[in-house]
Write a structure and sequence with these properties.
Layout: H1 8-38, H2 46-72, H3 78-92, H4 96-101, H5 104-110
Length: 121
């Protein structure tokens, strides 16, 4: 194996871990919403919930995109698969419009109709 080689098991682990983090963010959001309700809906967790939600909305579709690339390039070398995933995800950056355009099934299931920036500059 080459020095820069990236093993299949390692890559699968990275993709799974990314999805796992996304799921944990969602669990944290649900706990904070529950706590916020106990506080009478005071909104003290508003900023934290929004931050976690934006991270989860980015990580979960990116893990699906990486999984799709991995499955489509199953017969390629690990290096080629890694480069394809890295290239696709780095092109998407943090732009949720582009990310969800690459995962239209998820967008449909979540009922996302339109994505807008809150603080347009």
């Amino acid at each position: 194996m080459k020095k820069e080689s990236y093993g299949i098991n390692h890559m699968v682990g990275d993709v799974f871990y990314t999805e796992f983090i996304g799921h944990d963010l969602v669990k944290s959001i649900l706990l904070l919403l529950k706590e916020n309700k106990k506080e009478g809906g005071s909104g003290i967790y508003f900023n934290t919930i929004n931050l976690l939600a934006s991270q989860a909305l980015e990580l979960l579709p990116k893990s699906l995109i990486a999984t799709s690339i991995f499955l489509n390039k199953n017969n390629d070398s690990p290096e080629e698969i890694y480069r394809a995933i890295n290239k696709k995800l780095s092109c998407l950056n943090h732009d949720l419009d582009d990310i969800f355009d690459e995962a239209p099934e998820l967008k449909k299931v979540l009922g996302i109709i339109k994505i807008e920036r809150v603080n347009k500059k």
